[in-house]
Amino acid sequence: MTKGERIKQQRIALGISQVDLADKIGVSKQTLYKYENDIVTNIPSDKIELLAKELHVSEAYIMGWKDHFEKQQERIQMYVERLMQLSEEHREKVLSDIDYWYTREKSK
């Protein structure tokens, strides 16, 4: 997978539009399009850093230095951080849902 493909895939997974991401990293929509479609492959390091922050992945992931498993670990860490910011009531609900789905899938 290319840098552009990783950027686009993560942007879509997070439900972020090209316009929003471009604005957040300080480039035009056309420039982001060029990044995502590998028209521009020499992305400036400051933009890689901003992309990683906005897409909740590491710079190493965008550059292709980390594999899918490591990306999943980063994503899980992001959700754990979000979970810890919820109220205790909502945290318990999420954990209960996880237990439910885990038990249901393991019983198949």
Description:
- The chain is mainly alpha-helical and 108 residues long.
- The longest helix has 19 residues, at 88-106.
- Helix content is 74%, strand content 0%.
- The chain folds into two domains: 3-66, lambda repressor-like DNA-binding domains (434 Repressor (Amino-terminal Domain), Orthogonal Bundle); 70-106.
Structure described in brief:
The chain has 108 residues and is an all-alpha fold.
How many DSSP E strands? 0
Q: State the secondary-structure class.
A: mainly alpha
CATH class of the largest domain: Mainly Alpha
CATH topology of the largest domain: 434 Repressor (Amino-terminal Domain)
Radius of gyration based on Cα positions:
17 Å
Report, as a whole number of angstroms, the end-to-end distance. 34 Å
Which residue ranges are poorly predicted, with pLDDT under 50 across at least 5 consecutive positions? none
The biggest sheet amounts to: none
